[in-house]
Amino acid sequence: MIYWLFVLLVITIFLEGTVTALPLVFVSLLCLTILLRNPFMFFVAFLSGIFLDVFAVRTVGQTSIFFLIAVLLIFLYQRKYEINSYPFVTFASFIGSFFYLFVFGYPAAVWQAVGSSIFALLLFIIIRFAYGTPQKTGLHLKN
Fold it and tell me: Which of 101, 105, 110, 125 is most buried, most CB within 10 Å of its CB?
């Protein structure tokens, strides 16, 4: 089951790097980090950023740094807030997408951030509906 989530990540890397300007990889990483809550996500975020930079023909490493900081912030907030909730996913995806779009110079960052937060919420609902909560289905990666 977990392999399908990483297939989703690979598809979003390809789509964002070649077709769309929405931060689909960021949204996928956000949902995966919230559901898995495993430090392995730092490695996944780093590799996703490298591949996205290669596909988007940008300086290699910029996106990786952004993704690593985003995953770190999610892990820091998990101790203080309930991150496995719809409001957190919506808020975090909007703020993260807005900063991502602003930093990398995309036009109409606010509207694209709204679109990506709607996409993140729908993706999170679909994943939770399909797999249930991580505690019940064993979505956590084993250490």
Answer: 101
pTM of the model: 0.86
* pLDDT tens, N- to C-terminus, the chain (143 residues): 678 878 888 899 999 888 888 899 999 999 988 888 889 999 999 999 999 999 888 899 999 999 999 999 999 988 777 888 899 999 999 999 999 999 998 888 999 999 999 999 999 999 888 877 655 444 544 44
Reference 22, options 90, 77, 95, 97; nearest CA is 97
Report the alpha-carbon distance of residue 107 to residue 56 in Å, rounded.
Answer: 16
Listed residue (22, 61, 59) closest to 45, CA to CA: 61
Q: Give CB contacts under 8 A, 24+ apart, made by 35-38.
A: 35/5, 35/84, 35/127, 35/128, 35/131, 35/134, 35/139, 36/2, 36/134, 36/139, 36/140, 36/141, 37/75, 37/78, 37/134, 37/140, 38/140, 38/141, 38/143
